[in-house]
Design goal:
The complex is a heterodimer of chains A (240) and B (549).
Chain A: E1 7-12, E2 15-20, H1 25-31, E3 55-58, E4 65-66, E5 77-79, H2 83-99, H3 114-121, E6 138-139, E7 145-148, H4 157-166, E8 171-174, E9 181-184, H5 201-205, E10 211-213, H6 227-239
Parallel strand pairs in A: 1-5
Antiparallel strand pairs in A: 1-2, 3-4, 3-5, 6-7, 7-10, 8-9
Chain B: H1 3-19, E1 22-27, H2 30-34, H3 37-50, E2 57-62, E3 74-76, E4 81-83, H4 91-96, E5 107-108, H5 113-116, H6 134-139, H7 144-152, H8 155-165, H9 177-186, E6 193-198, H10 207-214, H11 216-230, E7 234-240, H12 244-260, E8 275-281, H13 290-297, E9 321-325, H14 326-338, H15 340-344, E10 354-361, E11 367-372, H16 377-384, E12 394-399, E13 405-408, H17 418-423, E14 432-437, H18 442-456, H19 462-479, H20 485-501, H21 505-509, H22 512-520, H23 522-530
Parallel strand pairs in B: 1-2, 6-7, 6-9, 7-8, 10-14
Antiparallel strand pairs in B: 1-3, 3-4, 4-5, 10-11, 12-13, 12-14
Classes of the chains: A alpha+beta (240), B alpha/beta (549).
């Protein structure tokens, strides 16, 4: 009898790597110190493959595939870096900078920002798309936290952590396309959102300065994310 | 109901029809209704009554008669006479002429390519049956395929027939229907679903709408056959709220079919149960994408999700789900009734059967046509479509809606099938065909479709959400005479980015209208940029205007 296939061997950037059959390309790459840029992905939350930064080339598949949501296969040949992928990744980050009003020098997360980190790491020196300069509000109605729509990149980490981990589902998205906005409850001011437990998980998972603690000044807002893998691990233990 | 009872109903209907000398059909599909076909029908009924002709003339409202530009349409079935642009005031004259020569000023010749070059499969009953009577459908052979299949064929034989027929998805991508069905058969699960995608949203497209309004029972029969083949007991029709008439007729049809035992439990005396419910879309174009459609039926926001897993394996509520387009289901009963060899004998090597097209724009015969795959664009536009009105010159034909492209004159002799249109940088899509003459500006056309995609993008992935908005900004700049050659380069760069990195089909195909016009009409872009001039005289040059997405 043939045993079920548990372990596979694949190639990432020419390196032979072994992996569990149920792992994603991203997980295997990270375990082997191969860096793939990610933004909507966060360990402990469901993967939605929306930011498109982790797209990789897989031999034999015409379309680029998101590493965060693609499972490894025996003999798979993955390319995580190429001139084409580098260009696409830079452009995607630049599109985010052009979409809203990201001004690092006056931002609470300057120096602690995932978007800023990726831009530097990917070698972006300037944005070659026209800025769209939308006129967007700040919601400071919550007692402890605030939402600055100007910095939001719509990664939906806040939506997912609130729904999947906290279980409150205070956050969601309204509108569509370029008019999409994160909202609390039925688009009420955050301070009036009854479902909000004020746990602050959304603030900590937010990759940019869109969600921050009140009272923090420029560059003072560092995000604490250690709780998330810990919580996930503890819950997995409990359900075993 | 049993097969015998079905035959009895059909025979009774045919007998009743044979007793009447004349059959007068009034088109009551959406196009004709919007030009007062309902008033024509009422006037006709009362005129027939007042002339005491009830026993020799049967008047009925039927589905789409095809030539929408000449609506309201009336057809005298036995005499092969068709009247167009009929007003209620014309009715007495028409009734008076029943025994003599037809009213010449209203007559439309049935002997013209528009009617003679068509091959009707999905539309075989359109214009012949009353869409609100199940008996009419049964008299035309309806539900006989379902009754026979349930009693004589195994599910795997049904799938085999569909595979052999070579039928491909009529919704856009042209995926093999047989392969899709056999994948759902193989998916593990005791609960499976069948979904009919009736969220037709391309601008200028009305194929599915006409099928639903003209022959709703055909969809129910096709879905029940699919349910039997793949092992599903529940079906959903996801139809957009903008089609109230289709919704009304589907509701009537479902009720009638359940009462007659053509849907529900133990259909046609077999152990097979199948129910169909409607789900009404709220108007999002992206809900035509299958995973977004499923999310919408589940009650969530209509957002596409990553595939794999495909719906065949993990679909509605996580169960294996077969999802096909209206026209695909509409072809199924005919294929099973007339055989897969018959169907495979029509069309080209890789694209079998006939396809319904909605001819719109600068063409004489705007309307609904069903032509064999492989019909050339020239035949479609200049023979069936009757050419370009007002002596204007043909410029391009846009196929496939916002995901498609514009095809110029030098490719008019291309036979239309899935592969050839792809090679030309367009797609078959759901069958929209918008003809453009020399008064259309191709930059403006690209800008229009980009605006459509920008408004309809769900916003989930970055390339589509921001990239499409940027492309729209650039196209607006070009059309206003504000752009530079750098802007053009940026536009082309964005086309490539959005096409290759977007999450779903909407984003991946959103650059197509821009790409195809850049490929065939680059000189028009250059005229806007370098000469600050719109060759077609459509775009207003506004060098000072501010451009926002």
């Amino acid at each position: 009898m043939k045993a079920p296939l548990q372990v596979t061997v694949l190639q990432i950037d020419g390196r032979e790597i072994s992996a569990h059959a149920d792992q994603t390309i991203l997980q295997v790459a990270l375990e082997n110190n191969i860096w793939i840029p990610t933004l909507c992905h966060l360990e402990g939350l469901s993967d939605i493959g929306a930011c498109r930064l982790c797209l990789v080339e897989i031999q034999g598949i015409a379309k680029l595939q998101p590493a965060c949501a693609t499972r490894v296969r025996e003999g798979m040949q993955v390319v995580t870096r190429s001139a084409r992928l580098d260009k696409y990744r830079q452009s995607i980050i630049e599109l985010l900078f052009a979409e809203r009003n990201h001004i690092c020098s006056v931002c609470v997360v300057n120096g602690h920002c995932d978007l800023q980190y990726l831009a530097r790491k990917l070698g972006i020196e300037h944005v070659h798309f026209p800025y769209m300069y939308p006129n967007l509000p700040v919601d400071a109605s919550h007692e402890r936290f605030a939402l600055d729509q100007n910095r939001c990149i719509l990664c939906t980490r806040c939506v997912r952590v609130c729904s999947e981990v906290e279980g409150a589902h205070t956050w969601d998205i309204k509108g569509s396309g370029i008019q999409s906005r994160v909202i609390t409850d039925f688009d009420q001011p955050w301070g009036e959102a009854e479902s909000c437990t004020s746990c602050g998980k959304c603030v900590n998972v937010c990759p940019t300065g869109a969600l921050f603690q009140k009272g923090k000044s420029v560059a003072e807002m560092a995000k604490q994310r250690g709780f998330l893998p810990y919580l996930t691990m503890m819950r997995e233990e409990e359900t075993k | 109901m049993t097969r015998e009872e079905l035959d009895v109903i059909a025979a009774k209907e045919q007998e009743a029809a044979a007793r009447v000398k004349r059959h007068i059909h009034v088109c009551v599909a959406a196009g004709c209704l919007s030009s007062q076909a309902d008033n024509v029908l009422t006037a006709l009924n009362s005129e027939i009554r007042s002339q005491g002709l009830e026993n020799e003339c049967a008047v009925k409202g039927v589905g789409c008669l095809g030539l929408c530009k000449a609506g309201p349409l009336i057809a005298l079935e036995n005499e092969n006479v068709m009247y167009g642009n009929v007003a209620p005031a014309d009715v007495p004259e028409i009734v008076k002429a029943l025994d003599g020569e037809p009213v010449e000023r209203l007559t439309i010749s049935p002997h013209q390519p528009f009617f003679e070059r068509q091959t009707k499969i999905a539309l075989e009953n359109s214009g012949h049956i009353d869409p609100e009577r199940i008996e009419d459908y049964i008299a035309a052979g309806g539900y006989s395929a379902l009754a026979d299949v349930l009693n004589e064929m195994s599910p795997s034989q049904v799938v085999e027939q569909i595979v052999k027929s070579g039928l491909r998805g009529r919704g856009g991508a042209g995926f093999s229907t047989g392969l899709k069905w056999s994948t759902v058969v193989k998916a593990v699960g005791d609960q499976k679903y069948v979904i009919c995608n009736a969220d037709e949203g391309d601008p200028g497209a009305f194929m599915d709408r006409s099928v639903l309004e003209s022959d709703p029972h055909r969809i129910l029969e096709g879905m029940a056959l699919a349910g039997y083949a793949v092992g599903a007991r529940q079906g959903y029709i996801y139809v957009r709220a903008e089609y109230p008439l289709a919704i009304k007729r589907l509701k009537t049809a479902i009720r009638q079919a359940e009462r007659a035992g053509a849907l529900g439990v133990k259909i046609f005396g077999s152990p097979f149960d199948f129910h169909i419910d409607l789900r009404i879309g709220a108007g999002a174009f992206v809900c035509g994408e299958e995973t977004a459609l499923i999310a919408s039926i589940e009650g969530g926001r209509g957002l596409p999700r990553l595939r794999p897993p495909y719906p065949a394996e993990y679909g509605l509520w996580g169960k294996p789900t077969l999802i096909n387009n209206v026209e695909t289901f509409a072809s199924v009963p005919t294929i099973l009734r007339r055989g897969s060899e018959w169907f495979a004998g029509i069309g080209t090597e890789k694209s079998k059967g006939a396809k319904v097209f909605a001819l719109a724009g600068a063409v004489n015969n705007t309307g609904l046509v069903e032509a064999p795959m492989g019909t050339t664009l020239r035949e479609m536009i200049f023979e069936i479509g009757g050419g370009i009105p007002n002596g204007k010159k043909f410029k391009a034909v846009q196929t496939g809606g916002p995901s498609g492209g514009c095809i110029p004159e030098q490719y008019l002799d291309t036979p239309v099938d899935y592969e050839t249109l792809n090679q030309l940088g367009s797609i078959m899509g759901s069958g929209g065909m918008i003809v453009m003459d020399e008064t259309s500006c191709m930059v403006d056309v690209a800008r229009y479709f980009m605006e459509f995609c920008m408004t309809e993008s769900c916003g989930k992935c970055i390339p589509c959400r921001v990239g499409v908005a940027q492309m729209h900004m650039l196209l607006t700049k070009i059309s206003q005479g504000q752009a530079t050659m750098d802007d053009l380069a940026l536009l082309e760069e964005l086309c490539d980015l959005v096409r290759h990195t977007s999450l779903c089909g909407l984003g991946q195909s959103a650059p197509n209208p821009a790409l195809s016009t850049l490929r065939y009409f680059r000189e028009e872009y250059l005229a806007h940029i370098l000469d600050k001039r719109c060759p077609a005289g459509v775009c207003e040059m506004q060098p000072e205007a501010e451009v926002y997405a």
